[in-house]
Fold each of these.
Amino acid sequence: MVRLLRDLLRPYRWLLTIIVVMMLVQAAMGIAGPWPLKIVIDSVVGNHPVPHWARLFAPSLAHGGRLQIAALAAIILVVIAVVISLAGYFANYFIEIVAQHVADDLRMRTYHHLQGLSRSYHRSNRAGTILSTIITDVKTIEEFASLGTVANFVDILTLVGMLAVMFALQWDFALIAVALLPFLVFFVSRIRTAVLKTIKEVRKAQADMVAIAQEGLQAIEVVEALQGEDLQESELSRISELNMQASVKARRARALLTPVVNIPVAICTAFVLWRGSALILAGTLTLGSLTVFTAYLARFFGPVQSISVRMEMLAQTAVAVQRIRELLEADAIIPERSDATDPPPFRGDIAFEHVAFSYDADCPILRDVNFTVRAGELVGIVGATGSGKSTLVSLIPRFYDANGGTITIDGADIRGFTLRGLRGQIGVVLQETVLFGRSVRDNIAFGRPSATEYEIVQAAKLANADEFITRMPHGYDSVLGDRGLTLSVGERQRIGIARAVIRDNPILLLDEPTAALDAESEQLVIEAMARLMDGRTVICVAHRLSTIRNADRVIGIKDGVVVEEGTPQELLSRGGLYAELHRIQYKGANQSGSDRPNCSASPGETGTALRAMSE
């Protein structure tokens, strides 16, 4: 935690220096605060001489009248107030700048780290919990840095300064105050432990509430269709009740601090007043000195009380730092070799050599997978649900890392490439295209923000998307709703294809891109994919076999291994996995008339259009 905070604060050390100076000034002026009143009581109302330090400040006071001394005390009081105010203003202003920058740096560092984690991490952690850490926990640290840091630091400086002056004024009285400190520190630390425990429960409950609300709202269609509103509300109510109980428990523990601090302080102050009065009557202590001492005594325990009151904020900050640290220390990161290099332009030869993979060591997904794809080939991947088809293609751009074996592109191990360089030459079209709440133009150019307007429009035309985009109220400037749900599945899929077109990658991975489409949408998407695949190495995970009818080869996956490989016609004649899937899919249908359009490349026009885009 200390190293994390040090790294975050290092760029702002000059601002921190200014802040510390301002805090020192605040503390010094706070210590000087009661002395003008001492001068008035002892040297104006009473008959004691002006203090030596005051005569050094204004030599004329040594022979001045009482009103002149009172005037000086009033001026000093105003000066102290002005200096404290200015120092407090600059300290708070600069600490807010630092707090905002640190929060922004921490937020971006956390988000950057999350984007580098493997899909295994995101599969096993709820998005709502992660969002709570990025937003709520970072906000807690920011608030403590801007509100609590200045106050706590000034309180500590004031505590030390006042203790020194109290020993100089009346050391035996000071010992009484010091004697109380161990008791107060011990009790505060015990309360802090209890509060910290309950705050952890509170933050976990808050993160769970965010996760439940997010899941329910994102799946509102499912909730409504299955009449699950009451179930969702009861689950949220259960977590909210836990949050309420933990919050009340934390507040109850913190509330104990006030009486435990106030009662001993009152007893200590009462004793000083009684003993001080006796010393005044004996002539060994002035009334002004007793006034200063009692003011110091009250302010001496003031920082202890203030810190105890801010204990809940301290506990929340400690929990927030711990949660962020746990996230930043998550090691589910796709490793990148120190000597990794950006790959040269790919030709597109891909080879799997004895590749194995599992999400869980006890449940392997792929076992000893071996096959090759030549540059420019269209290869289909088929198999039953859960056979590892999608996992297999996810290993090529290293969304996951194989547990064993080697994957090569153009003869080079993909682990020798930088992730950015590797993924920069691989296009992906998924079964469900996820769009962002931005304009259509921005969504198409998401994978290549530097694309020109002409390239964006050409990509949309090749993807059969231009027609419905131009019918939208603002055309390419139309802002899509959350996840693009204002569009149909087929329209979202065509924008996903336009994304792949505009990237113009030599390798293309299609993961069941037509599985969720109706016949009409499938026709448009297949036509778009045919243009997209021209001249590229394509691996297409197929649910509907019509999409790979004209594939160069088809690879059958069963129980995590390759069980057959060949052209569609060859596999049909063998009567194996592909033939069985084909029989099930087209059972009872007229084969010649029921097959939907295939993914064979359209001649000529694709190459011409892509060349026009590149020019």
Note: The CA atoms of residues 39 and 73 lie 7 Å apart.
Amino acid sequence: MQICPGHIYQLDNSEFVLIIDFLEKDKYSFIPLTENLTGGNKITEIKFSQKLLYPVIREASVISAERILQEIKELEKEKYDKILRELVKHSAQLYLRNTKSVAARKYIPASGKVIGEAELDNMIEASLDMWLTAGRFNFQFEKEFAKFLGVRHALTVNSGSSANLLAITALTSHKLGNKKLNYGDEVITVAAGFPTTIAPIIQNGLIPVFVDVDLQTFNICVSQIEEAISEKTKAIFIAHTLGNTFNIDAVSDICKKNNLWLIEDNCDALGAKYKNKHTGTYGHIATFSFYPAHHITMGEGGAVATNDTSLFEILMSLRDWGRDCYCSSGKDDTCGKRFEQQHGKLPFGYDHKYVYSHLGYNLKITDWQAAIALSQIKKLPEFVKTRQQNFELLKKELLKFVDYFIFPEATENAAPSWFGFWLIIKEDVQFSKKELVDFLETNGIGTRNLFAGNMLRQPVFTDNSYKIRVRSSGIKQSSELTDDDFMLLPSTEAIMNRAFWIGLWHGITSDDIKEIVEKFECFFSGVNQ
């Protein structure tokens, strides 16, 4: 009998093995596949030796040819495929366990990712599928993500920024009739945050209207919203800042009263709840990011979510080149009318797969990315719990410095999914923000600003003339703003000048927090001398 590496054989003791390689003198290296059999050629369990360090073959993994009775040729292709996939994953896991040791941390970053064998397994599965574009992992993740949030529809995209672009662009669709956003309409937002919450407003020919934020919650100052509304105002687009929810009841009431769209930028708040319901489920559309700094990751990636089926179809069209067809990648004629419809002024029966109802993009992800996220979402509740615990521990330990800082407060009725622990340095202290941040960074503690600070002071606004409004002001050109305009947002200015945040992400341990607190103590021992 010719014995071939890569084939499965039954031994004289009825065990099944996968032959790896010929060694010498009729000896072969092998991997045991199962310990429990039910007879015949039926393999009921796939199990690999944890002692095997492939390709280093140990004595226990070598067998003579005379013990090999027969090749299992009748094994179903599907099961054979599964065995080979498990072998590849097993080898990769051994590599990970034996080469990726955790070094002592010299720098505690403000954000990061936690990934391991489960993510590696899924990445390998997706790679072996060789589908590459959005496929089975993506469809399963979209389903699981929607289920986690408690919404009807979730759609993956290639970043949180793309999710924001998609959300605003969807509201300009002609399919919304007189509810659509038109060129020159206004969207209320804040200047203290990330630039890609604001960018798609301008990119769609709309006018951002900026109101201030609250210093303790870092979220929109609700009392300023109604004064900023004009006859041109059609939407509110704001973030749950650093994982702390904005006052959803108050904002939603204003939207209902004034017939406004509400988009939740939930990129920094995945897992947060307001009145025991997940954020990202209150607005007409919500956006999410899966960048490595966020609550879960897929490398690069994001998502949009909605309970509105009409909006979902628009979002999907815009994500997928603007096409009218809703068939999944690799699928055709889902509707059964692919060549039986009239669209625009095209010939009757024009292939629906090539009919376009929007000027869209290609913002899809790969199945490899979705495979990572599908593993990550199972860990999300524990990640969120760790972030919440780290927040409480940091606050407890740093409250000794209450004379120097304004500390974060959770919004009433909220259970935040904290993204970072922010601190606002009080006025008239004996040190500057730069001095403290420089000290922390030099001593291995990562820090971050609240992203753009005051976005209106950024070069993209001062060097270009975009139409904007600040609170109840008239239309202004961004390049012509003065200090008087900036000071209409005093809390935003304070955050830019005196606030920063440190890490509490799910990879930070209690020992890391102890180290962080010790560095603060060291800094203030010098200040108080």
Note: The chain is about 35% helix and 15% strand.
Amino acid sequence: MHSRRLLKASHAQALRATSVAQGFFIANLFGILDSINLNLCAMADKIFLNDEVLSFHEDDLPCLITYVDKTGGSHFSITLVVDLFLRGSKILFLTAYPMAKDNFLQQVGSDHSKIAFVTSIEDLENVKNTQVIILESGNEALFSEVAKMLPDLAERVILVKNMEVFSKVVFDICLNMKRVILSGNIGVCRQRTHQ
């Protein structure tokens, strides 16, 4: 019976696919399957060392990750932060560009209930206890204000991605913290001789 329907199906009916929210895909193939619900959300990437998964802990910090463009350092940095997040670490996330945020969200998957997006200091009051606080990309003034007002700053892992873009203000805050990850191209970093 199904083979007859297969033969009768027109090319336009052969495959209809619709993307829906949060990484789900519904397909109707030749009318045989009413729907297939596949979870397409990404899984966290892994970092391998000598063919074994390497997991990071807050005790491994502070950390400096330096690289030039197109060598995988950005992805490595975000994967490290995702690993810490999945282990329960609280994160304060500052990047110069939104691609790092997108990579983080992709690796975390569709459950963003522990993630808050902050674009102004007013946003902080309602989300200050959230596990991950992602600041507006490139907004170092906001980072500076959040650092003054966030009661659990010393308990958070601070990621500064694209460190070469930021000023001395960001480094002054980070260099006083133990749980910090500075990531970017130190070769072009204006603050590489910071004292």
Note: The mean pLDDT is 80.
Amino acid sequence: MAGNDPKKLEQTEDLAFKRMREKGYRITMPRVQVVRALISNQAKPLSAYAIHDWIITHGGKIDVVSVYRITATLIKVGLAAVITKGNVEGYVFTLPDHHYLFVVAEADSTADRHVIDDDNHRALAKVFAQVSGSNVEFGHLVV
């Protein structure tokens, strides 16, 4: 994942925009803003409202309906996925040819027993990558 490294963030963004162009989509400012929000929060699924808030907080301008429309486009081209648990929905950035594993934990007193810490994330990702021969990214969603 790109993390907070500006160079990696820019490279990941470039890959996303290249993919969109290959699929016939124009690179518009609202699409740039949604992609940036998702890339900047890769390990944390964001709701459409959280994406909207992130964009506004970072000086952008977009409405929530556009966020929903753009995330649908990103899912269609393989640059986003939606994680759903009950009525909670979160969007995450994805790249083609990568596998993403998310741990979904209930937000109750037993949640700590279900959340996998970062060291275990890395260990599981390494094992999964060896077995599948694929790139693996991890994140978690607490609902």
Note: Residues 108-116 have pLDDT under 50 and may be disordered.
